[in-house]
Structures are given as C-alpha cells and as structure tokens.
Design a protein that fits this description.
- The complex is a heterodimer.
- By secondary structure, chain A is mainly β.
- Chain A has one helix spanning about 5-15; strands at about 20-25, 30-35, 40-45, 80-85, 90-95, 110, 115-120, 125-130, 135-140, 145, 150-160.
- In chain A, strand 1 and strand 2 (about 30-35) form a beta hairpin.
- The radius of gyration of chain A is 22 Å and the shape is elongated.
- Chain B is an alpha+beta fold.
- Chain B contains 15 helices and 23 strands.
- In chain B, a hairpin with a 5-residue loop joins strand 10 and strand 11.
- In chain B, helix 4 (about 90-100) packs antiparallel against helix 5 and helix 7 packs across helix 8 (about 175-190).
- The chains are: A mainly beta, B alpha+beta.
C-alpha cells in the first residue's frame, strides 16, 4: 500500500499515545522507526522521493558539514590554471535558482565577466565571475554545500 | 483549552524569547531546529530539541511538513512560528488546523488577506483606512496627465509588471508628465514585455509609523500605541522607537483608530502590526501593509506598556480573553531599540559570520538585551545577520538616547564585526536627536557623512 502523509501523521499520533518506547514498522512503501527517548523520531520512506516540500525529516540529501566555520584541506591547482575561490564563508550554488540550469558546466568556455556561481551568506547572494576568459576545467565544490573563505570552487584554464 | 506544550518553530533571539515566555507561563517547550542550531542558546533552554533538517532553511525551518511532524511527534499542542520563516504562511496555518495543532497567530483567512497586497489595500479602503492616492492602470499619456492633476504632484509612475526601479519615474511638474509616461512605458515594455504603468502619489519625505494591535477570539481588540521605524537601510529597519517623536495626539488617535478598523475587518486575533507611511511634511498617513505576526521590534512596545506580548500571544491562542482592556493600557516613557547585526558597516554592510570570542552585554535599570549570543557561540552563515537587539527605556526620549549611548559604549563584542558602532553613531547624531529623520535619511544623508568620517579616522 502507498502511505499518505495523513496516514503517517495518524500513525505517529497513535504511537505517541501508546506506551511503547520504540516502534519499528515496515509496510508497503513505509519504513518507520520511532524512539520515544533519546534521538528524535526518524521517518524513512523507500518510495520514489516526493517533491521537496513534502519530504519528511531524515529523508533528505546529506546535510552540509555541521561545523560550518572550519576550512578544508587545500586542493592542488595544476600549473597554469586559475582557481576561483569563495570570497567568504557561505553556501555554494551552481544555478541562479533551483529550477534553472547551472551557470556553467565543465568544459564550457567563459569570458572574464561571465557569472559562474553564487555564494550565499546570511541571505545575501554574491555573484562570482570567472575573472579570466578560458575553459571550465573542473567544478570542485558541490552544489548547495557550505564553503569556507578562500576554498576553491571552480578551476579555469585561461585562454592563451 | 489552555496550551500545555509549545513547539518553537524558529531560531535565534526570537526562539530564546519564546522559550522565556513559555517558562514564565509554566508551559513546556520543544525547539524544532536545524542541524546548525542544535547547540544554540534556545536549545539549552527548552525541555526538548528536535532536529528537523540540515542547516539550509529551505530544508528545515521552511519545511512545513517537517515542522508539523515534529509537533505531532513530540506531543505539542501548539506551534509558535516567531517572525519570518513560516509565520505568515496561510498554508502552514491550515496544515496546523488540519493536524489539530494550535497555531499561535491569527486565522488563515486573516494571514492570506493581509499577505496579498491588493486584497489588503481593498480591505483597508473599505474599512475607511487611508491608502496612498493613485491610479491602477494608465492607458495613454493623456490618462497620466489627468490622473496626475487629480492626485497632485509629485507622483511616481511604476511598471505594473515590474520592479527593481525599471519603468519608474518621479514627476514633479505637470509639463513633464507626457515625456515621463512615454519613457517609462517604453522601458517597461523592453524590460518586462508589458508597457502598462500605474501611478501613485510620491511622498518625498516619509516616516515609517506602525501601530501594534492585539485581539482575541472573543472579539476584544486593543491597540498598544505606535512605533517609529524610520531609520532604515534598503528597507531594513535598524533602529525603532516608541512612541514616535513625529506623531502628535491627533495623529495618534487617527492612526490607532484606523489600525483597529482594519484589524476588526478581518476579526483579528493575536498580535499584529499595521504599518503606515507618514508624510513628514503634511503628517498625512497612508496604509502600507499589515504584518500578521510578532515583530522584531515588539520590545519597545513592551517597554512602554509593561506588557509581555509573547506570553499574551500564547494565552490568547489557548482561548483565553485578552488579559487587559484598552483602558488598562498606559504608555509610559520612551523606548529605543538598536538591532545589532553581524555586518561590516564600513565595507558596504558585508555579512560577517564567525565565532564570538567576547560578549559583554551592558546591564542596568531600563536596559534589555534580546539575544541568543554568548561567548564562544558561532554565528553561522546560513541565516539572517541579526545577532541581538539592545533595548533601553527612559523617562523621556532624551533620557533614552543617553541611556542607549552609554549602553552601546559598554557593549563589547569581539570575534565578529557588528553594526553596534554604526548604531552608536546614528543615535549620537544631531538629526536623530532632533528626530529629523525620514526613511531615506540614513542612505542619502547619514551614510555618506559616516563613510567620510570613517575614512579620516
């Protein structure tokens, strides 16, 4: 059977009112594991992922690093290449909006004032430009990941 | 039915504020927070913490189903949405209703009506609340000339389809109207594919005045006076005060009566704010919008009324009648609030997340700090830059200004750059002390001077 959100909520209600400390339930597309004390309730579904707005907790993409202010190990920049770095700590975005295509793909040709990505910090979106004309060699950072200040985001091979 | 356990669906200082109100009322509290806020001050104050998603707000604080599920899963009978995030989403209120959870705020229809600009304006007009004179749709340059003459100059032409300043013209002389209409319409056509314009009276010197209202489910409705939030940068309030130094008794009477009329038109319950633009020269007031939530600047109203608005929100949402009547509301003294943001004012207000190395907050009679920050706490890059609010209450406005200056001098924050020194410079300025401030003042007059002085020092 396919579980609806209402049924899941009703089930959670029932469990809440019961005496059990821990409940594991597998039925149809639903795998439910509820623990009353300790860790918060987790909800898992093996069905095709529903739209993001209907996703349940614990059923989303891996969360970004939980220590947001730490910096990562420096990656090597091949000689002759230019690294585009994060101007400040923030969230890296490859596209102007979630439903729009990325600014650039690997292998694309860019001009110096082309926008290649966004870094969001405290609700402020910073537009990051290529800075040099050339070819996008590698997109290093993961979309929607937290990036540290000066972390390498994209590597560009400048045009000669 | 009185509320027994509240889910706090927010973060930062307002989560701390709600947790305090719960404690005061003897109500249990559960914090629904993101992965980044597990160690926050609010998380340490509540009875239980539920992580509802990763740091990014879209996947946690803005995820309606995650919040509802957390509320049900932890046995909460109510949700306090704070401000921002889900606080003014009518759909979220409906989800709460369906799940049998009390939403601490007004009904869904009131949220929806005030959330839609045109509906709100229509309601305001039919409730007899003054709105900005204007004309919805201009078809020709001749229309523009006729309407400008009717409304009175100056006027502003705006693109119906647009925003961001394009297709916008301020017209100060009737002789210029045709040329302005043609240019703005062409610009709108190019930018938005639609050349339709509308016209509004343009207020050169405006102040932002707002009235706090409070209603309950039993038909009681009161106002708690006004606040003045004219010190703004890019439409963001920086300093708020109550009462407004620019509002006289007659204007106050008219404004509060208008705010109550509008709130009554939607049978408003809970805390709400009716915002007005006041022409600083003529004192004419025009309705802007109604915010159907607790506001950031509610403490200045609390200071001059002696009321606890957040505790009252919880009581009223639980079905209790308002604990005070209009005749019980007495406004005493003057209060000022400075928002402290983790931003570098000298560097175009660049956000400055980081770790707070030192946090020494001023204390004393008439000084209040609403903040989630402390030594060693991390200001993450994922959310709003506000790290706290400093509120002072004095016998007079001059007294409050002096108190604010002294409190800001004693406020030591190291590790992140904050706007506290910038706020101090504003409060210390002659224009602020004379209350000669409009919503454009900070950006047009104060900031250029401030930058010049900073460059010299």
């Amino acid at each position: 059977m396919d579980w609806t959100e209402k049924q899941i909520i009703a089930t959670l209600r029932f469990i809440e009112q019961s005496d059990y400390d821990e409940v594991k339930l597998e039925a149809g597309n639903l795998k439910l594991h509820v623990r009353r004390r300790g860790a918060p309730a987790a909800l898992e579904s093996e069905a095709a992922p529903p739209p993001a707005s209907h996703a349940a907790p614990g059923q989303r993409a891996p969360s970004p690093r939980s220590a947001p202010l730490q910096s990562t190990a420096e990656i090597a920049i091949p000689p002759g290449m230019t690294a585009i770095r994060a101007p400040m700590i923030g969230t890296f975005y490859r596209a102007p909006a979630p439903h729009l295509p990325p600014f650039v793909q690997e292998g694309a040709t860019v001009k110096a004032d082309d926008t290649v990505c966004l870094v969001e910090v405290m609700k402020l979106f910073n537009t990051i430009k290529a800075g040099v004309s050339g070819t996008v060699m590698k997109i290093v950072a993961q979309n929607a990941a937290t990036v540290a200040k000066d972390e390498v985001l994209i590597i560009i091979e400048p045009q000669r | 039915m009185s509320i027994k356990r509240v889910l706090i669906a927010n973060r930062g200082e307002i989560a701390v504020r709600i947790a305090r109100a719960c404690k005061l009322l003897g109500v249990e509290s559960v914090l629904a927070c993101s992965d980044a806020d597990r160690e926050s001050l609010a998380a340490r104050m509540v009875d239980r913490v539920v992580c509802i998603g990763p740091a990014q707000a879209t996947a946690s604080y803005l995820d309606q189903d995650a919040v509802i599920t957390a509320a049900i899963g932890t046995g909460c009978d109510a949700v306090h949405p704070g401000y921002g995030f889900l606080s003014e989403r009518a759909a979220f209120r409906r989800l709460c209703d369906e799940a049998g959870i009390v939403f601490i705020g007004p009904r869904a229809d009131a949220i929806a009506a005030m959330g839609d600009k045109l509906t709100a304006l229509r309601l305001a007009r039919s409730a007899g609340v003054p709105t900005i004179p204007g004309c919805d749709e201009l078809k020709t340059a001749a229309d523009a000339r006729r309407e400008a003459a009717r409304i009175g100059l100056p006027v502003m032409l705006k693109a119906s389809a647009g925003g961001g300043g394009r297709g916008m013209r301020i017209v100060r002389a009737l002789a210029d109207i045709e040329a302005a209409y043609t240019a703005a319409s062409a610009e709108a056509q190019t930018a938005f594919g639609d050349g339709t314009l509308y016209m509004e009276k343009y207020v050169e010197r405006a102040r932002h005045i707002e009235v706090q209202v409070f209603g309950d489910a039993h038909g009681n409705l009161v106002h708690l006076g006004e606040r003045d939030c004219s010190v703004q940068r890019r439409h963001q309030k920086l300093i708020e005060e109550a009462p407004s130094p620019a509002v006289d008794d007659a204007t106050r009477q008219a404004l509060t009566a208008a705010a109550l009329q509008l709130a009554r038109a939607v049978s408003y319950s809970g805390a709400g704010t009716v915002e007005f633009m006041m022409d600083a020269d003529t004192r004419a007031c025009y309705f802007l919008e109604m915010n159907t939530r607790i506001q950031v600047e509610h403490p200045v109203t609390e200071a001059i009324t002696g009321l606890d608005l957040v505790a009252e929100q919880i009581r009223v949402a639980g079905g209790a009648p308002l604990s005070f009547a209009q005749r019980d509301v007495e406004l005493s003294g003057h209060a000022i609030e400075c928002r402290i943001n983790a931003e570098d004012a000298r560097n175009d207000f660049t956000p400055a997340p980081g770790t707070i190395a030192r946090w020494r907050a001023p204390r004393g009679p008439g000084i209040r700090i609403d903040s989630h920050c402390h030594e060693g706490c991390v200001v993450p890059p994922f959310y709003d830059s506000m790290i706290g609010k400093l509120i002072v209450h004095g016998e007079s406005r001059g007294d409050a200004i002096d108190k604010m200056l002294s409190a800001l001098d004693r406020f030591i924050i190291d590790g992140v750059t904050t706007t506290a020194p910038f706020s101090r410079a504003i409060v210390a300025s002659d224009a602020f002390r004379r209350a000669a401030v409009t919503t454009a003042w900070l950006e047009q007059s104060f900031l250029p001077e401030y930058m010049k002085l900073e460059a010299q020092s």
